[in-house]
Amino acid sequence: MKILAIDTTSGACSAALYADGRICEQFFRAERDHTRRLLPMVEAVLAEGQSSLTQVDALAVSQGPGSFTGLRIAISCVQGLAFAADKPVVPVSSLAALSRGARRSHPDWGDAPVLAALDARMQEVYWGLYPPGEGANALLADAVSTPEQVVSSLKSAGFLTADTASTNCSLYAVGPGWEYPALAALKPLAVSTESAIHAQDIAVLAAELWQRGIQVSAEELEPAYLRNEVTWKKRARIRQR
């Protein structure tokens, strides 16, 4: 199985080729240079993996949530490549990829779940709770909420004890969304706010989803913004002031 994955969700740009368990990846932190870098990175990982676009089984991309512009860049690129090569696409949650990447970077982390949180601006975070291991299924589905609502949701679902002020909560924290005081006050077992989303993690998760028959056509691929249209229009008006 060969899967080509791309990501520009956050302040990084990456491409990876998964080939029967072997992974080649190109990764750069580049806030505003994604469009220029992306296709050369795709060519580089295909060359390193001695493959061509026509030889991959599917393409994979971070579906979101995340930066509006970043999601559009990666999804547009994947759609163009998928149309050209007549390949299906496996959409992957950016939060699932962030969670997997954190576990890959921290092999000492134990069996507690990982709460991945990205800053969604407007005093909100994109977040999802993922189990131990490297699977794509969430314990609590990806959502956009205020940090206080995240805490409430965790309590309602039984993932927090009644008193979180004096003891560590039994979960690991990853992503810049954890810089909000309401989340930081939970005292997770460990925090990794600098972790980035990597295409290699998207590729591995996509391989699992592909084996389960989860795929879409290029024209069916849509970003998962989580925010509704009204909210995005409000953000556009704020930028124009």
Structure description:
By secondary structure, this protein is an alpha/beta fold. The protein folds into 2 domains: 137 residues, Nucleotidyltransferase, domain 5; 86 residues, ATPase, nucleotide binding domain (Nucleotidyltransferase, domain 5), CATH 3.30.420. The protein is 35% helix and 27% strand. It contains 7 helices and 10 strands. The strands form 2 sheets. Strands 3-2-1-4-5 form a 5-stranded mixed β-sheet, with helices on both faces. Helix 1 packs across helix 2 and helix 3 crosses helix 6. The protein starts with a strand and ends with a helix. It holds the Pfam family TsaD. This is tRNA threonylcarbamoyladenosine biosynthesis protein TsaB. Belongs to the KAE1 / TsaD family. TsaB subfamily.
Based on helices, strands and strand pairing, what is the structural class? Answer: alpha/beta
Quickly count the helices. Answer: 7
Measured on Cα atoms, how large is the radius of gyration?
18 Å
CATH homologous superfamily designation of the largest domain: ATPase, nucleotide binding domain
Question: Which stretches of 5+ consecutive residues score pLDDT under 50?
Answer: 229-241
Mean pLDDT across all amino acids: 89
**Helix content range of the residues, please?**
25-40%
CATH architecture of the largest domain: 2-Layer Sandwich
Give the SSE string.
Answer: EEEHEHEHEEEHEHEHH
Quick one: overall form? Answer: globular
Number of strands: 10
Q: Biggest sheet, open or closed, and with what strands and sense?
A: 5 strands, mixed
Strand order of the largest sheet: 3-2-1-4-5
Number of domains: 2
CATH topology of the largest domain: Nucleotidyltransferase, domain 5
Pfam families: TsaD
Domain Gcp-like: 30-202
Protein name: tRNA threonylcarbamoyladenosine biosynthesis protein TsaB
Family: Belongs to the KAE1 / TsaD family. TsaB subfamily.
